[in-house]
């Protein structure tokens, strides 16, 4: 694998997003490799799954070059389908899943973190559901996970504003479960050790109950996000958002289809 590292530690399986030169932005190959790593994780007896990023951040979200390929609708659909598969695999994984966030967790990167059971964050981390800045809607189950954690009203406000949250702000909103100062790896290790001393089998059974109750709703959310995302990719607003991002200026949205 080029962009994903993984290691089976026995009781814990570790996946590292490893495209640091692009702040772990997720492109087609990286998403496919992530899916492959999750399949491998699912085949192990590990009861914990840790997902983290290398370099300066967790993940900046979807790769900008991949977004610029949105004119290829078939490619867009394939990518979104892979995203949906990845999210469903994490959500339904019969393990306790932990995301360790440092630096940026933006857009799809934030959705990916929220798909985990526990979200840990380094004090300086920034989280943003910032699809609105390029005229898109959240994918990766972002609507589902935000509503589950903070409710519909607050979720809509966060999506529509694209606000960048500090780790402390995210914790106050209950989007992050714990915030640590200093070495995130050390604190994550301590958190995982505490989990390993817990009755993990019972915890996983509780997860399975909620997963069984909610999986249909998550799947429906992913389908609706796919439809909305493909629709929004055809708009002038999305093209303007991409241009503005590349030109480092504020976008001028006009709400018209291409």
TrEMBL record:
An example molecular function term from Gene Ontology annotations: catalytic activity
Regions crossing the membrane: none
Gene3D superfamilies named among the record's database cross-references: 2-enoyl-CoA Hydratase, Chain A, domain 1 (3.90.226.10), Lyase 2-enoyl-coa Hydratase, Chain A, domain 2 (1.10.12.10)
Pfam family, any one: ECH_1
InterPro entries listed in its UniProt record: ClpP/crotonase-like_dom_sf, Enoyl-CoA_hydra/iso, Enoyl-CoA_hydra_C
Taxonomic superkingdom: Bacteria
Alphabetized NCBIfam families for the sequence: PRK07659.1 (NF005804)
UniProt family annotation: Belongs to the enoyl-CoA hydratase/isomerase family.
Protein name in UniProt: Enoyl-CoA hydratase
Record organism: Bacillus swezeyi
């Amino acid at each position: 694998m080029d962009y994903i590292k993984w290691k089976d530690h026995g009781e814990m399986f570790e996946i590292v997003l490893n495209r640091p030169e692009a702040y772990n932005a997720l492109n087609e190959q990286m998403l496919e490799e992530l899916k492959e790593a999750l399949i491998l994780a699912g085949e192990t007896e590990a009861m914990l799954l840790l997902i983290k990023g290398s370099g300066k951040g967790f993940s900046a979200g979807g790769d900008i070059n991949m977004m610029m390929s949105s004119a290829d609708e078939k490619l867009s659909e394939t990518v979104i389908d892979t995203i949906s598969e990845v999210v469903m695999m994490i959500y339904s994984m019969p393990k306790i899943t932990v995301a360790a966030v440092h630096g940026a967790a933006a857009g799809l990167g934030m959705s990916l973190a929220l798909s985990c059971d526990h979200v840990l964050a380094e004090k300086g981390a920034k989280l943003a559901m910032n699809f609105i800045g390029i005229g898109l809607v959240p994918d990766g189950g972002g609507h589902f996970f935000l509503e589950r954690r903070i409710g519909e009203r607050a979720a809509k406000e966060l999506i529509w504003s694209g606000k960048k949250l500090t780790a402390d702000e995210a914790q106050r909103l209950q989007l992050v479960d714990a915030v640590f100062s200093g070495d995130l790896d050390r604190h994550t290790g301590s958190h995982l050790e505490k989990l390993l001393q817990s009755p993990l089998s019972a915890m996983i059974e509780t997860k399975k109950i909620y997963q069984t109750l909610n999986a249909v709703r998550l799947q429906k959310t992913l389908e609706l996000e796919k439809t909305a995302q493909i629709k929004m990719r055809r708009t002038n607003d999305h093209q303007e958002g991409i241009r503005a991002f590349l030109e480092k200026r504020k976008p001028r949205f006009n709400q018209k289809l291409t």
